[in-house]
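Cross-check.
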Amino acid sequence: MLRRLLAPLDADKLLNNGVRPFSETTMAKKQKRTSPRTRSKAPAKPLLSRLPALAPDNLTGEQQSLVDAIKSGPRGQFNNEGPFAVFLHAPAYGALAQKLGGHLRFNTSVPPRLSEFAILCTGQFWKAQYEWYAHATIAAKQGVKEATIRDLKAGRAPKSAPRDEMAIYAFVKELYAKRRVSNTTYVRVHKFLGDAGMVELTGILGYYVLISMTLNVFRMPLPEGEALPFKEPSVK
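Predicted model, tokenized:
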């Protein structure tokens, strides 16, 4: 009796008796039936700006002067979107802000690759949709590696980034978390930027925090058809 119980199961006999063996295929089908249904993610709703769009052909003299200043500056063009669309609503302030931004982006001693890297760190920290959309492409053109950009976007430390970028990453992360930086963190960046570069890097970070807050407060949308790079927080 015991031998018969311990004998190997004969699949043919089981089938003849109307019993199906519990095969891998059967198990897979069962798992497929019992696994929770996968739900497709709905596309994120586009942001709706809190400010009305201003038509370029219906601007005040002061607003037009701001547009002309941006066009004649280092950017070389005016796009009626992002922070510049906000600046139009307060053109005297916008004229000063855009001039500072133009200098910090184009005319400092901080190499463009490192400047754009710092801007991405700021955009990711603030989840500033338009800022990331605009500068991720610029950063890649200036030499920031695609793998680094992916890591930053996901909130991961960019471990494959070169030492100078990693030093700036640590600087930015510590500054935003603690509102201070340690001597060790400061010295790591100072070694390759020097005194002037440290002042300018801090200015770059401060300016793009200003831009991030501007974009987030006024919910500035991306161009039509562009997907939001970050999940938008649910804020009423």
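Confidence is low (pLDDT under 50) at residues 1-40. The radius of gyration is 28 Å. Passed to J.P. for a second look.
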